[in-house]
Amino acid sequence: MRKKLVVGNWKMNGSLASNALLLQGLVENPPVDAVEVAVCPPFIYLGQAASALEGCGVMLGAQNLSAFAGGAYTGEVSASMLQDLACEWVIVGHSERRAYFGESDALVIEKLRMALAAGLRPIVCVGETLEQRESGLATQVVGAQLDALTQALSAAEAVSLVVAYEPVWAIGTGRTATPEQAQEMHVFIRQRLSAGGWVGEGVRVLYGGSVTADNASLLFGKPDIDGALVGGASLVAGSFLAICAAAARVSSGI
């Protein structure tokens, strides 16, 4: 059985003071065994988060990494640097990276290779825009993103990789794919991964896109939704913990 995973993506938010309060809330309410929990702060706050979260069961991740191992690449952060700060996870290919910073499927693959080589567990994001969905191209767009993965990486390499389906039209907009829409795409993702030679049923697939405490239980109740990549709601300890609790309840059959 695939264990539920809830990951908080803080994006470019936070301060030392606000982070301390948020992290304290997480430490005082550690996750239960039924669900895995991770947070991904901005690079500059990884050290603060690593220190605060030590031993509490909440894992640490980064929002991005460099496609280079090291050297004269001003402003870049390597996989080995993330390891130094106790990161276990790293988000790769988020739609905001693809849209605002021109990250192609090829660059996403290079970053995935760096993450895997360093022992980091990548969360690779796929998803379609509103225009693409309304044009009937959602599966075509997501399928092409998945094919790039299966053509470049082996099934063995995929064992430690998580896929996050994030409909771009639902990120930070307050709009959310219905549980039925999300489930339909998650089934498609598994089928496409299997067609590419991976074991689709063995890959955890998260949903991301305006996940809240109010809709989490309905989303997690779908058989192919293995958790969430949470944006805005992860910046408030109570909201994020409520989403984690919803995942735990579903996993425990409550």
TrEMBL record:
It is an enzyme of class 5 (isomerase). It catalyses: D-glyceraldehyde 3-phosphate = dihydroxyacetone phosphate. It comes from the Bacteria. Keywords: Cytoplasm, Gluconeogenesis, Glycolysis, Isomerase. This is Triosephosphate isomerase. Belongs to the triosephosphate isomerase family. The keyword Ribonucleoprotein does not apply. The active site is at 94 (electrophile), 166 (proton acceptor). One of its GO terms (molecular function) is triose-phosphate isomerase activity. Pathway: Carbohydrate degradation; glycolysis; D-glyceraldehyde 3-phosphate from glycerone phosphate: step 1/1; Carbohydrate biosynthesis; gluconeogenesis; Carbohydrate metabolism; erythritol degradation. Its EC number is 5.3.1.1. Involved in the gluconeogenesis. Catalyzes stereospecifically the conversion of dihydroxyacetone phosphate (DHAP) to D-glyceraldehyde-3-phosphate (G3P). GO terms for biological process: gluconeogenesis; glyceraldehyde-3-phosphate biosynthetic process; glycerol catabolic process; glycolytic process. One of its GO terms (cellular component) is cytosol. HAMAP family: TIM_B. It is found in: Cytoplasm. PROSITE patterns: TIM_1, TIM_2. Substrate binds at residues 9-11, 172, 210, 231-232.
